[in-house]
Amino acid sequence: MRAIIAGGTGFIGQALVVALRDAGWDIVVLSRSPGKVAEVFGHGVIGMRWDGSGWLELLGPDTAVVNLAGENIAAGRWTGEVKRRILESRVNAGRSLVKAVGEASAKPGVFVQASAVGYYGPRGNDPVDEGAESGSGYLAEVCRAWEASSAEVEAMGVRRVVVRTGMVLGHGGALARMLPPFRYFLGGPPGSGYQGVSWVHLEDEVGAIRFLMENKEARGAYNLTAPTPVRFRKFARILGQTLGRPYRLNAPAFALRLLFGEMADEVLLSGQLALPTRLTEAGYVFRHPDLEETLADLLAVARPT
Ligand code: NDP
Question: Would the pLDDT of 24 be above 60?
Answer without folding.
Answer: yes
